[in-house]
Each structure stands twice: as C-alpha cells, then as structure tokens.
Design brief:
The protein has 220 residues and is mainly α. Among the domains are: 17-127; 186-219, no CATH class. It contains seven helices and two strands; from the N terminus they run ββααααααα. Strands 1-2 form a two-stranded antiparallel ribbon. Strand 1 (22-24) and strand 2 (29-31) form a beta hairpin. Helix 3 (70-91) runs antiparallel to helix 4.
Length: 220
Amino acid sequence: MLGDDEDDQFELPSAAGDDILTLELDGWEGPLDLLLSLARVQKVDLREISILALTEQYISFIERAKALKLEIAADYLVMAAWLAYLKSCLLLPKDPEIDPSPEELAMRLQLRLQRLHAMREAGARLMGRDRLGRDVFARGSPEGLKVIRKAAWDASIYDLIAAYGVVRARADVPMHIVQRRPVMTLEQAIERVSRMIGVTIDWTSLEAFLPSDASGDYRR
C-alpha cells in the first residue's frame, strides 16, 4: 500500500462539470483525483480496483469530451497511468534493493504533477506576452540614401605586375661609395717642395712644383 503521510497532497487538475473524470469501478465510484488521494493515504485498496475498467472509462471519457482542455486530459492520463503502475507494484513480488517504496512512488508522482503545473504556467506566461506584429509593431525602415559605387582604377594583370616591379625597385636602394679625392697632406707637400727647391736654380712658376701627372683637381 501507499504511505501514511496525510499532509502531502497532489496538485489536482482544475476541472469542473463535464470535465471531471468520474469512475464507476467495483471497488470505487467517484472522481479519479479523489481515488488517487485516498489511495495515497491508504483509504482505498488498489488491489480491488480493475485497471482494465479504469482504462476503458478513461478512453470513453476522452472520446466523449471533444472540447476537453489538453492540460486536463494530460493530468488525468498521468494519474491513471500511475494508478496502474502502483497496482502492478502491489501485485508483483518486490525486490527491496531495486523496486522503490510506495512512499517514493507517491513523491515521484507529486513531483511530476508539480513540474507539469510549472510548465503549464510558464507556457501561459509566454503566450500572454506581447507578440511582434500583433500587439506591438516594429519601427518602419527609413528610405535612406542610395549608394553608388564606382571603381577608381581600372588595371589589368600586366599593369599590376609592372606596378609591383616599380615598388620592388624602389625598395632596392643602391649603395653610394664616396671616392677618395687625390689630395696630399701638409707634411707630404712640404717635403716635396723642399726636394724640388733644393735642385731648382732659376725662378719658376708655382705650377712647376706640381707633380708631372697632376690633374685639374690639384690645380684647383
């Protein structure tokens, strides 16, 4: 049987009138949600409930209620499936190391119903938000200015190769070598003039003292 904690209650579907699934079984007659709550607190023996009759009445209820809300049908489907599962756990031999306890099964059912309710509320909040194109509208796009693009250069592959060659030529900077000017130091000039004066007898011009192979650079 199920646990004896009477304080924990399942969150039952909010249905009324023809939307309530009422069962007529051998061991029970009343709403499905009430059957699940009483089985939870050990006031109904699930071994006396016919799962086959429960399934047939659930299918008949779904076919009869054409305008039934989908979330209510989903809640009832979860309850009926868990009642069938709980009864199978009561009839089949149990392995304490593998099979969960009835209290654990009840807590799992409660958790699933709470998750279902949370998902339903989240979906309702999402669908209740303003929708683009129905409740709110985006700002219209401005006309703007037309942009016309024109090519500034029109060159072929040969022009590109020639331009590349020019750039490469600029990169190769030639080495500038400064040539040494043919000049004499002061000591060399004094020595040369002294030697020449020593053998010179008559007056002569200064150009005569220059070397015989002197170029115009010496003369300047």
